[in-house]
Structure formats: structure tokens, C-alpha cells
Amino acid sequence: MKKTVILFALAISILSCNKTTETKEFKTAYIDTSKLMEESTEAKDIEAKFKDKSKVMGNQLEAEVTRWKSEAANFQKNAQANGQAWAQQKGAELQKREQELSYAQEGMLRQLQQESGTELDSLVSNYKKVIKDFGKEKGYDYIYGTGEPASILYAKDSYDITKDIIKIVNDKYKSTAKKEDTASEKK
């Protein structure tokens, strides 16, 4: 009987505590992170920069591959005329160059991935800061992200602040670019 009275008193005290606590609604929003990266000027500039760099590096490598193919074609023409010893030596040289070209291509891809990854990581870090500042300024309790690794499966469109953030990061990037242009003109 004592246990029942104690449990009953405990239940009443918990219920009365719940009634006195204030229920607060949270101000929330979300950002489509894929759209942010697609539509931000800075992200587009980074993508274009590495596309151009890839093209230049690829052209250099392509010239080497073309030379190698030419040598391989000449090798096949001259193999019988120059004898087996020459063919084995030249074949080994061509195989070695082919392997070097393959390593060069892998190295180029690795370098491009590393450099672009570093710049994109920095960009994402800057965007997180912008979003955090925006959230504080506008009084948000939570700002969620959607995109490829979707963390929100549904939200009302009215909670979407992606356009606001894109405008802020693009304006910030434009003002930074103008400052850099002005500084380089003074030099």
C-alpha cells in the first residue's frame, strides 16, 4: 500500500511539473545543399577552374600518348627487319613508357582531386559559417540540410531558405572578388 501511495504521489508530481513547463516552438528552416553548391558563383568558379586545369594537363598527357602510339606503330613495322634482340629491347622500352604514362595519368587525377577537394572543403567551411551567422541573426533554432545525403525527407517549402543563403554567399563572393580586383589594379 505504501508503494502504491508513493508511486501515485510521484506520478502526480511529474504531471504537475509537465504542466508548469513552458512549451516552446522552435524556428526551423532547411537548405538544399546540392542547389547551394550548383548555384553559388564561387562553387561554379572553382569547378570551371579545375575543368580548365584538367583540360590543360590532359592535353599535355595526350601529346605524350600520341608520341607513344606513333613509336609503337613504328616498332611493329620495324620489328621483323631489325631482329628479335632489337624487338625485345624496344618492346621493353615501349612497355616501360606506357606504364610511366599510366602513372602520370593517375598522378594528375590524384593531384586534381586533392587540390579541388581542398578548395571545396574550404568553401563548405565558409558556407557553414555563413549559415550559422544567418541562423543566429534570424533567430533560428535549427537549420537542416538536404541534398545528396538527405537528412530531411519532407519539409514545407516555406521553410526553405536556400535562395537566401545563395544570395548571401554570392554577394559576399562578389564583394571579395571586387576587393581583390581593386588591390591587384593598385599594384
TrEMBL record:
Please provide, in alphabetical order, the Gene Ontology terms of the cellular component aspect for this entry. Answer: cytosol
Note the SMART domains from the entry.
OmpH (SM00935)
Tell me where on the tree of life, at the top rank, the source sits. Bacteria
UniProt keyword annotations, A-Z: Signal
A single GO molecular function term of this UniProt record? unfolded protein binding
Query: How is this protein named in the record?
Result: Periplasmic chaperone for outer membrane proteins Skp
Per UniProt, what is one Pfam family of this protein?
OmpH
Q: Which organism is it from?
A: Flavobacterium dankookense
| Segments forming a coiled coil | none
Q: Which InterPro entries match?
A: Chaperone_Skp (IPR005632), Skp_dom_sf (IPR024930)
Protein family: Belongs to the Skp family.
Q: Which residues cross the membrane?
A: none
Q: Name one GO biological process term.
A: protein stabilization
**Is Transport tagged as a keyword?**
no
